[in-house]
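RECORD CONTENTS
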Amino acid sequence: MERHILVVEDDRALNEGIAFALEKEGYIVHKACSLREAERKLEEKMDLILLDINLPDGDGRDFLKNILAGQRVPVLFLTARDSEEDMLAGFRMGCDDYITKPFSMAVLAMKIGAVLKRSKETSRKIYTNGGLVYDYETKTLKNCGREVELTALEIKLLELFLDHKGIVLTRERLLDRIWDVQEKYVEDRTLSVNIHRLREKIEDNPERPKHIRTVFGIGYKWEDG
């Protein structure tokens, strides 16, 4: 998978050196020597930005604010400022890591790898509400810390409800969207049985559900409760 990194550094020799080292690691590197040039480069989606603080046309920290206002891109500050106050200020502003000059290219590569890994983990689609935690990627559900075993049909139902929170889903719509393991049409009675079983796994009181609510005569609705 291609990873695009923008290097914003006005020292051209350092910029070229960083780009060369990262390209050897397999990254696609975009170079900018000013904030104005960096803004143009951001028209293309970046996976990470290496950002110098002191730039000829402005402060990298102000640029970081603008980035975070418009999109979520991991940012690693490159700077000669090595005081604890400067580092803490950078983290409070939203940078993902901080490396002071001069630095080792090997250490920089390790920091970039760690930031990208954290970014991938935090970008995963996860639903949380009270004791319920559902991970879309791993298809796992936890209720108050305990993993709940779900069937394939229950997973489909749960994701349909979570993706349509607060919206009434008719029985017809649910039946049209879910199929069994063999990709066969699910009958109305099977839908009722699976919703009952799902309630038993996630509700504190399945007889008085607070999440999968029945809308009489129409269907069901998920509420965070």
Observations:
- The radius of gyration is 24 Å.
